[in-house]
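Shipment paperwork, digital attachment
Item: protein structure file
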Amino acid sequence: MIDNRLYKHPILQVEEKPLFKFYWQDQELLAREGETIASALFANGIRIFSYHHKDGAPQGIFCANGQCAQCLVLADGFPVKSCMELIKPGMRIQPIHGLPELPKVNPSEPGSFAPIEEIEVQVMIIGGGPAGLSAAIELGSRGVDCLLVDDKHRLGGKLVLQTHRFFGSVEAVYAGTRGIDIATRLENEVRKFPSVKIWLQSTALAVFSDKKVGILKEGRKYVLVKPQVLLVASGAREKSLAFPGNDLPGVYGAGAFQTLVNRDLVKPTQRLFIVGGGNVGLIAGYHALQAGIQVVGLVEVMPECGGYKVHKDKLARLGVPIMTSHTILRADGRETVESVTIAQVDENFRPIKGTEKTFACDTVLVAIGLDPVNEFYLKAQEFGLPAYAAGDAEEIAEASAAIFSGKIRGLEIARDLGVYDGEIPEEFKRTADILKSRPGQTYPEKFPEKDSGVFPVIHCVQEIPCDPCSAVCPRKLIEVDKQDIRKIPVYYDEKDGKGCTGCERCVVSCPGLAITLVDYRKDAEFPEVTIPFEFLKDIINPGDEVTLVDTEGQFLTRAKVTSVKSVKANDRTILVKVKVPKEVAKQVASLRLQPEIKPEEVRYQERTPDEAIICRCERVTAGEIRKLIREGLRDINEIKTITRAGMGPCGAKTCTPLIHRLFREEGVPESEIVDQPKRPLFIEVPLGVFAGLKLNQKEEKHESGL
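Attachment content:
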């Protein structure tokens, strides 16, 4: 029996939960308490959930966020989104072939209806991630009547999926603390304030012209909320990419992947390939390695990865091939992904014939950027409802920037409501700008000149906002410019007559794992190097011979592990110590985890990209849309009418940017394009919910399937 669950993780605590039986196509399988249907199916090696009604194409998970319907299944006869529905003992799950049948109703049986609840609040916050929580803390601390709405089962947003330590400022945004722990801190803080009401598993559906906001509360009750002020902190959605095979089960985004791995503790893949070298893709690759998943490669179309160099370096050092100036050509497989073919691109980003490489993999993770989820903010502005946006809904940046953005928006709203009479400090605005900034200059790596005593080697050579190393050094030997924490850290051999003691605090606190400690005190010819390591302790032991590499992942030497140190104060970061020749000691940055990965024989065959799926929900190809553009259509509404592109369950969230891209490829200026209106609803809702229909006992178990 296949079991793809994670039972051990180097960072996350894995609780033992009861297993129970369920049935997939009448086959008896085991689920873990608290799993969604999707995670239970993945845990049992099932990746195809249904077949599209239009052409029978296999469907699998895509967003893992309830925003599309790629993962639709029949659960005890009711169609449900498997990524959102918790599995229950004895549940019988079936794939959907064609269109699902609606539940049978007796038209002569009278319905029972309840009035739609309407409430008023001073401030409504959409989104319980870092920005929304930070704003709620500022408002709650001033007694503002505040309603915080989030569609997940717990607060924290994407923080609950982040196992790595955060960058930024220790003082302002918890830098050096893991995202999962920041989520807990913020949630604990906001729950101290009785004026802040929290609705979980509740989705904002629309902002209406009467300045009310429709909420699907806990998935079953419709409520209208009339706020004096609306704060939209709804985060971002991932961009998609059109290529042949992009619709195969096994092609999805980093958010879905991290949800399965870091929330549901399921190992959804054995061999992962990543498209996109921003922070999202780089971090997801690191999370995959922590879960014991092989990352067979990463491509980035630009000459350099757009994410932090320390994130890229972590993957390169662990043995992940990173190929810049490359793009994906296609994903291939009979029913699910079996391989990916890539190629180098020229200065115009066109694939260079003859440079194709094929890698065997079972999952392609698309991480090519984010778009703000700002529809509610724009509608509020249109209808004259006072509104603010914070975090990624305002501007795409790191979560540390979202925390500070929410803090500032909270103060601004409090000022507008008359409960805060101060100005927003200029220092706050400056800090926000620094936290939102993109990576700056990269410098050549320089090593300390001394060959005695003990000292850290800082392998961080790119300007990024980060200061934990300076905050934790007890003798203040590491300095980061307090006015601009993007500056490269500087190490001083001595201050006030005192030098480094080898306390290792800087090594374990660095979010980029970019500091090692070199100790010549016992052996000047073979100094001991201390390396940070965030993997399971039992995969490396004293006496093991390991491959040591430099910052870029280049081979330096083989050496035996002298000790493996794991202490509670190190917050799940293991310290691995090795003795190496003095000639390479300062260059050692990490040990390699994966063996060398080489591409297979090229399977790629030239095929027109017109076959790439643009609208996943309605199975509309690039060729169908491109033909209409060439015929002169400029109104996306007309394209929608002819092809049904944008009419599916995801509400055009995925395909609209891809249609705009097709217009650009055809040389159509943006000024000529007529976009379709952004209509409610944000997700599909049973019509009975809007009418206040009271469900009977059986229907209450499956209200999402009405």
